[in-house]
Amino acid sequence: MPDRTTASSPLDGSRIPVQAKLAAAWTSFMFLYVYVDYLHLYKPGVVSDILAGVVFTFEISAGFAVTALALTIVPVIMIWLSVILPPRYNRATNLVVATLLIPYMVFNAAGAGSWLAFYALGIAVELLLLAFILQTSWAWPRRAAVRPAGLPGEAVTDAHIESVTP
């Protein structure tokens, strides 16, 4: 029978690794990015424009397709890089890429017209996710430097370090 005399403990708030937070944010960003583009196809006239060879004001060509694919690959690769890069490079990469994506996301509102609410919602959430990525990367916790203990006032030598290193 369980002991009911002890107070219930609070929920476990174990720390989530920074890399996992970043990968989750990039994954959320990627899903939203793709779904905004997909749901855009429901906008009247879009499919007929695509069939006529035009997206927004751009002519559909191999170059257009390569550019669109490259822009889509960026957040996909960031999911992977957020998990595998060492912290120093991970932090820098996330700061640079998220910063560069902000103007691109804002540009996507061009030509929204009567669909402004749709684009505003999608872009607002994308920008919030990018802000989270920037804040999480910027505030990446630093590991405290571990110094081998010596006697007070005694210089720590390589011999001390070797003696305490497993």
Q: How are the elements arranged and paired?
A:
Elements: H1 18-40, H2 46-51, E1 54-55, E2 58-59, H3 62-84, H4 87-107, H5 116-138, H6 158-164
The low-confidence parts are none
Helix and strand string, N-terminal first? Answer: HHEEHHHH
Number of domains: 1
Describe the largest sheet: 2 strands, antiparallel
- What is the tally of beta strands? 2
State the end-to-end distance: 45 Å
Beta-strand share of residues:
under 5%
- Helix segment tally: 6
Rg calc: 25 Å
Write up what this structure looks like.
The structure is a single chain. This protein is mainly alpha-helical and 166 residues long. The chain has one domain. The chain is built from 6 helices and 2 strands. The protein has a two-stranded antiparallel ribbon. Strand 1 and strand 2 form a beta hairpin. The longest helix is centred in the first third of the chain and has 23 residues.
Summarize the structure.
By secondary structure, the chain is an all-alpha fold. The chain is 62% helix and 2% strand.
List keywords for this structure.
single chain, 166 residues, mainly alpha, two-stranded antiparallel sheet, 6 helices, elongated
